[in-house]
Amino acid sequence: MRFRLLAVALLTLLAGGCVGVPQGGRVLSGNAGGTEQPVDDPFVGIIPVGPARDWSPIAIVEGFRTASSSFDGPNGDHQVARSYLACVSCWRPGVASIVYSRLDPPSYEQDGPNRATVTLQGTQLGQIGADGQYIADARDFKQVFHLRQDAQRQWRITDLPSELLLSRDDVTRAFRTLDLYFFAPDSQMLVPNPVFIPLVSRSWLPTQLVKQLIGGPTTWLKSALVRSAFPAGTRLRGLRINGGVATVDLTRQARAGDLNTMSIQLMWTLRQLREVQRMELRIDGKPVDVPGVSGALQSTRDWAAYNPNGGGEPQPAYVRLADGRLGRLDAARASAVPTKVQAGHPAISYDDRQVASLNDAADTVTVTDLIGGAVRTTLRANAKDGRFTPPSWDSRGNVWVVESTKTGSQLWVIEGGTRSVAVDGWALAQYPVKALRIARDGTRAAVIVKVDGRWQVQLGRVDRAPSGGLQAEGFISISSELQSAIDLAWSTTDHLAVVGMTQGNPSPSLFDVPVSGAPISPMIGPGGEITTITASPGSPLLVTQRISGDKTLNVCRLSVQYDEWKCFNGTSNPAYPG
Amino acid sequence: MNRWPTLPSAARRGLRLIRRYSRAAVRRAYVSWRRSLQARVVTTTLLVSGLVVAVLGVFLMQQITTALLEAKERAALLQLDEGVGVAQGRLAGAGTDDSDNTKSTLNGIVTSLAHRSGPSGLYEVIIIDRDDPGSVGFSSNWIRLKSVPAVLMQQVEASDASKPYRTYGTLTYDDGSSKPGLIVGKKVSRYQLYYLFPLTQERQSLAVVQQTILGVGAALVLLLAAIASIVTRQVVIPVRMAAQAAERLAAGRLEERMRVRGEDDLARLATSFNDMAANLQEKIVQLQELSQVQRQFVSDVSHELRTPLTTVRMAAEVLYESREDFDPMASRSAELLQSQLERFDGLLADLLEISRYDAGAATLDIEPMDVRDLVLRSVGYAEDLAERKGSKIIQQLPGEATMAEVDRRRVERILRNLLVNAVEHGEGKDIVVSVAADRDAVAIAVRDHGCGLRPGEANMVFDRFWRADPARARTTGGTGLGLSISMEDAQLHGGWLQAWGEPGQGSQFRLSLPRVAGAELRGSPLPLVPPEIELQRAPYAELELEADA
Fold it and tell me: Does residue A38 surpass a pLDDT of 60?
């Protein structure tokens, strides 16, 4: 009896211990607990190799060009590419590069018994400056390499251009475009400063980002007198990212700075990295208490008021109705606002109280109160054939508008919506301008300007000249890919939505254009001919569309969830505040 | 200054202490290994089960590792096949005439394959293009080319396109970190595609399994040892109890028995032990009763003989008185009858005395006495006999009184017996009686210079009816019980009676008695071997040695 019991118990134990995976059971939820790969996209790098024996000078230069597109080595100093050089340590390239679109076969010249010159020629799209700023500049370029045979009769490069020569793919592969955030000169708004940072290693990128932030804005943005909270001499002691928390350790010079503003700049800059959710600020190794932050860890939520894109909530949209009145665009339909307001190319102030609009001839700008309809001021064109571009508001309540003729242009600002001033320092006075939009921060202006017979998208600074007057200057082209542009709008603080044409596609379509100079990406449009566009962070894109063969204009709205357009018949000239 | 020399000495002391403790521990362990069955069984179980668990653990670990890695390899090869499909599709759709175009295509392939790896970093991708100067291809996530072992690369390069290869290696990254990995590779037209799977997860799983096996193994070994300890305890405790019982039995406690519990083997042992003890007790009691009966019989016989003997003696007395009236033959017979009757009487008296001892009925009548007086009186008794034999009794007595608490009658009897014995065996030579005393004891030695005792006879002389020469007729003197009675007398006093003798050297008997009745005797004031013999021995030995040389 006892043995039988024992046997049963043993059998039960054996059956219970048998290997098996569950084939059913409860439904559970759970987190993976941290991602293994913090960078959102997998990084793909080229594997560079040094020169083989007895390569020709052309092969050496070609090999060098390929190898130098890799930022290998501990600090991204092109360790492998240096093996093509006669003097390994003499070359200090940095990130300054020429981005080419076309490269001719290299030409080769024998200069002597063991000297040679190889010339690379082609067409460039633009250049990345030593500070990471990209400037689109489509033109031909020429790079000259001098080579010499060394003691082992191997060709090595002795003299070379200071810029790297990179294809567009190389740039996309080896760089990330990230914004450094600085404060606008006279307001507490953050201005993005897009820079190209090479992806040397996973940990190198955040460190380099913070280093560049502390180092200050690029030369281009520095002229806009943006402010940085970091006191002079501050350096980064260390940056560690662990479990979504970035620990930023600054040298003791940072004690002199304002902890709040430093934290705001750091937080909004670091938040672009997916692996960073929160930040801990340390100075000289010791955690500091930042006023307004509970606890040692801060997140973007603590500084939501400083969001460079504003609150991000949907803005009210306005349109010009078929009868010429100003209307409001709701989810389903457009309805006229109670006040009778002239509504040609309307622009609504950020506080939603005033509207600036053009008359049908586009030679008069009128600023009207949205409630009550009182006309604040009227600006008439100076020149006989002067036509105004659609007006644009900045966040301080100024209206910016360009009066453009066939041969030149003049920038006007209506300060506070009441006092019109001609801006003296308008750098594009020689060129006709089709559109101007001031960024939300008021320090940057995106324009469509006709240069060399081509309507280009350019970005300029708006600041005060040393004399005290306003000026708009420092215009740079941000994309060589757009052949021509019709209208543009700020979709976020560092992206433009542009109606334009690319090479080989003459019909206007929609593009997302990063102001950093990174590649543009097309967006699906509503079809038909698009004439105007407006955008606002967190709000759906609005365009004016005309079906070919039909004279009516329609405003179409992009659904937030899907790539689906909804059109409102008979409306035109949409506008968000700004 | 002073501290330096003290430090090493302190260290030495500490070292010595440690050594002493460890030596003591080893000794304790050895002792318990020798003495305790339980310790031995538990230690053996620990060792053997530890060995078995270790072997099992290693085997189990190997099996699990193999299973895990085989699953990983299969998954890896499937992934590689899928990746090769993607790469072939892209390569077919793109022109590879231009170096930049090729690079762009390969870049796209690696990017899309690395995208499939997902956020958990399932694998890294390397594609190798030998035809491009300045680079050998593309890699994902900063993995270094040297992560692909050269052997694998040669295999893949030399293979035809349909065959995948795999191997294990170390994945190294540009930031210097490295982890173990599985590397699979295949040729795609003129390129080589490698998938590198980090084995971090597998290593973690194996570490968990290993820890579990280690923990379970240790627990198992300890558990087995505990079980062995409990089991041996169940066996050892009854055995120990049996040993105790046997010890007590041996010490004479015949009523000692073991407790019987249950019906197992140990219960059987206890039962048979108890049977044995019972039998022994029965036999011993029987024997005791038997000897009692015999002693009673001897005593009764002696008593019963006495009455007729008295009558016979009285009759013989009469005959002896009037012997001169008989003819010489009858006269001689009457004399013989008389002397033998006296002997018979003595014999009976001795037998009665002995039987009294055997019955345990002998008692001491103690009074403080001067031992010298006793000696003088005994010598007086024996002097006649000595003169007849031609011996002279020399007395060596201490000057002062030598008091002791003794039974006068018994001690005198001992001394008389010894002296008569000495005279009878003295062969007419001198007899020396010496007395000595110390704080606790007195000793009387009687020395004769007769034929002596053969080796071994010194103990036998005290046996009942023992004779040095069996052939010699029991004509003279003693009854053969004198020395036995003397021995009993001495023992009744708590004293010793010892004999020494050597052939040709004579013999010496020594009586040692405690001065206070009931005190324990620790030593004797006189030597057992006469001093002159003791002194002779050593020179003789030397002489013999010299003669040998």
Answer: no
